[in-house]
Amino acid sequence: MANIDTNLTLITGATGxxxxxxxxxxxxxxxxxxxxxxxxxxxxxxxxxxxxxxQGDLTDEKSIQKAMEGVKSVFHAGGLPEQWFKDDSIFEKVxxxxxKYLIESALKENxxxxxxxxxxxxxxxTKEVFDESTKNTGINCSAYERSKILAQELVDKAxxxxxxxxxxxxxxxxxxPCILKPTGMTRLIYELMNNKIPVLLKGGFPVVYNEDAAKAxxxxxxxxxIGEKYILTxxxxxxxxxxxxINQIYPSAKIPKLMPDVIATLIASVGExxxxxxGKPPLITKSELKVLKREGRPNGMKIRKKLGWKTTSFDLGxxxxxxxxx
Length: 326
What we know:
The chain has helices at about 15-30, 40-45, 60-70, 90-110, 145-160, 185-195, 210-225, 240-250, 260-280, 285-295, 300-305, 315-325, and strands at about 10, 35, 50-55, 75, 115, 130, 165-170, 175, 200, 205-210, 230, 235-240, 255-260, 295-300. By secondary structure, the protein is an alpha/beta fold. It has one domain (about 10-180, about 205-235, about 295-325): NAD(P)-binding Rossmann-like Domain (Rossmann fold), CATH 3.40.50. Helix 1 packs across helix 7 (about 210-225).
């Protein structure tokens, strides 16, 4: 498939661990990049000088319309990946409605490609091995998961009924060097390195390096047929296995003991109601426990076979991530 004309590219979530990596990848490909950001001054200190910045927010439809003007390609990597907020309606406002506003503006602007960063959570994670053909029923989902499932449904509907030229990317737990305060799995790595985690929970998750995920997004934009979905995953690791690997690189990083399941469940059950009153995040959330206990494993072969995507080994990616903290 021939490369498409991408004269001006809009990115949401450009200061995030994935979004920033997408920005770098696009610039390496000599692309003209525009970013929708909440804080111009802060973002200017972080993002490359060649990037155009438009102030706005995923909850602000007018700012999205402004950012979309003249755009030929969109990478929608913005959103709320956290598992808990006191007011969980914020997930739908940002993840679902933000996606709706972007879809509507993209259709009006007649963009060539709309690359949507979804999640593995929209698939049936109860299957021993799941791929892009499975679908999450939405039963017993967290507010975050529901918001992403609804957003994915909006994207799929727009592809089928309105011709949105969308391709959906479904990364697992993203890690890698970041430009802001570590979040998600990268924060876990940072805190394990600095002995800030006294005990570990049982279980784990599949991982993917941020630069690999970014390359997958750009690869899909350039080579994938419209409407396709791709799971982005490398290997599965338990939290203990991650701690052991960090210890092998940094012997000063201790390997925490495992917390018994019964205690973790009790803390989550008691902590969430208390957090609703205090507004402070719980030590452990029920959804975090559920994520760690998932029995399903993602099959990420589709993008490898169809688009030739390759991944960095976890050992190398982990070394590069740890080095970035020095």
